[in-house]
């Protein structure tokens, strides 16, 4: 009697706990679904990349930097183009200017007499033109600015490659998180069926209390995994929206799948290294920076050379007293033109210091370039190794899935023939799910590794390259 009472109370406790956990999770999911009233954005991987290239803020900053570099080129050309300016000056005489003349001129007897020589109002209109004829630093500046424009183009390509890689990785993160969440849900559903079967056998007196407890614990131990998987899926979706540059309130529906797609990879590290040196934007950018430093050295040296410029000026001036009509005044015109030669003689060693600074910057750039090549060599080796390793794991996990599927079929056959148990079948299903999870993880690692390798090699989609 005590055994029956204990068993009855145990079943009631198990039923209440199962009801509590079963009701809590669906309500939470429903709240998440109802919280967003927007239509889901249905996107493939290519769609996500395209949207990110349009809305990603880091890429927009790189795009603005490229426009800024173009304006700096225009600014540098100002040194070799004519400069034209005009001015208009009006002067009001508060106390007139005077000159002193001998009084004898005016019939006086001696001394001097003050004569006013200024009018109440005066005005001067000027037009000034200047043109550098020889200024070597200006041409060096133009060359340096043009190289800076090319450097900004490579920086934009680098930013674009980083954004595309981030979007691809974030997209794969959502896919793997979704698949893992589905596998946990499937495991819970199967263990629920096993629990029901065990309870039925327990009521028939075939199964023991320990079997019902094991079945219940198997279900409940998976629920934290489901909560964790749901949270990871939500975090991955949030990160994908961020790198795409879209509103966080927009729900997403992904159409691409976590499928194995093999890409062509270099056959050796040496081949990968050569391709990276030829294509990577950061390598090209630093190479151009070295050229720009040469131009800066030339610009610093040119500050010690003569500068020849031409100038011209056109003036029109008038004076009139109060009460006179402006239309009756005259505007006599005068003009001048000339050449100016400026020859630096001694600048307090400033020119020499600037030359040495430019040379030091050139050496620093060359050192950074050699260091970058070393980093590229190590980077492509690591990325290529990751791709090869993930590819091998895909092959291994494919075979593991085949074995797990065979084990599942045998266990199912044993259950149908009455010589197996539901728990054995559930365990076989768990092994199959584990094999599938490991396979999906290997595919995910391969896709992420290939995305990183393509960025490391400097590979850019031709369609994207055409837009740049």
UniProtKB/TrEMBL annotation:
Keywords: Cell outer membrane, Membrane, Signal, Transmembrane, Transmembrane beta strand, Transport. GO terms for molecular function: efflux transmembrane transporter activity; porin activity. Pfam families: OEP. Residues 1-29 form the signal peptide. GO terms for cellular component: cell outer membrane; efflux pump complex. It is found in: Cell outer membrane. The keyword Transport applies. Gene3D superfamilies: Outer membrane efflux proteins (OEP) (1.20.1600.10). SUPFAM superfamilies: Outer membrane efflux proteins (OEP). The keyword Signal applies. It comes from the Bacteria. PANTHER family: OUTER MEMBRANE PROTEIN TOLC. Belongs to the outer membrane factor (OMF) (TC 1.B.17) family. This is Transporter. It comes from Chlorobaculum limnaeum. The lineage of its organism: Bacteria, Pseudomonadati, Chlorobiota, Chlorobiia, Chlorobiales.
